[in-house]
Model the fold of this input.
Amino acid sequence: MDVPLQPTVRVFFHPDSGTFSYVAHAAEGGGAAIIDPVLDYDAASTCAATQSADAIVDYVRTRRLCVRWILDTHAHADHLSAGGHLRTQLGAQLAVSRGIVGIQAHFKDIFGLGDAFAADGRQFDRLLDDGDALQAGEFDIRVLATPGHTSNGLTYLIGDAAFVGDTLFAPDVGSARCDFPGGDAATLYDSIQRILALPAATRLYLCHDYPPAARREPVSQSSVAEQRARNVHVGGGTARAAFVAMRQARDTTLSPPRLMLPALKANIRGGALPAPAASGVAGFGDLR
Done:
C-alpha cells in the first residue's frame, strides 16, 4: 500500500482577520504551493499593506522554494487575498475555482463596475474544476469541489494534507455560514461528507478559527478522524436535514463580515486593488 506524501506545511496566522495561510512544500529547494495568503488592510484608513504576505515571501526565499501555484480556496468575504501581490513577487500562477466567474458577474452588478471589469475569470491564471490536478515540483495537487459556504469552494489535496478553506472549522466550532450569494446549507453538508470520506489520518488545514471560551488559542489543524467523531455540527453521523435546519437557523443570527465589501471588491480581481482614486491613495478609498 502506497504511503501518501507528507508535505511540510508552514502555517502563517493573520490575527486581525483570524486567517491561516499556508506554504506546502516537500523539501528545501523544491516546489511549493501557497494557500489563502492575506493582504493587510486597515478599514479606518482604507489602506493596505503587505507585511503578512511578505513574511511568506521571506520564508519561500530563505528555503529556496519554487512556488508554482498560489491557491485561493474560495472568494473570501472576510479578508483581502494577497494572491496578486505574491504572484508578482514570486512569479507563480494564481488559481481559483471556475465558479469565480458567477461570483464576478453577481458583484459586478452590485458594485456597478461597468464594462471596464471583465467577469470571465481572466484575472486568474487558471480556473479549476473538480478533479483537476496541478503539479508543484515533487507533489501533485488534487482539486476537490466543496461548495456550500460559497458557490466556488475548493479543497486542495496535497499528499496526506487537505486545505479545506471555510468548509469545516475546528471540531468544537463546527461549520461555516451559508447565507452568502450562492451559498447553500444542503450543498455544504454534501461537501463536508466528501472531506469526511478521506482517509481518517488526513491532516485538515483550516482557513479560520473562532475559539470558544473554553479554548482561547486558535488552531489551524485537525484530522478527518477528529472531525468525524467530534465536530459539533456534523460529527457522529448528523443527518443532512438536521444539519440544514441548524445551519439555516444559525445563519439568520450572524452579522456580515467586517471586511466584506473591501474583501469582495479586491478578491474578485484576484487580490488586485481597484484603480487609484483621485486622492492617489492606490485605490483604497474605493474599498469602503
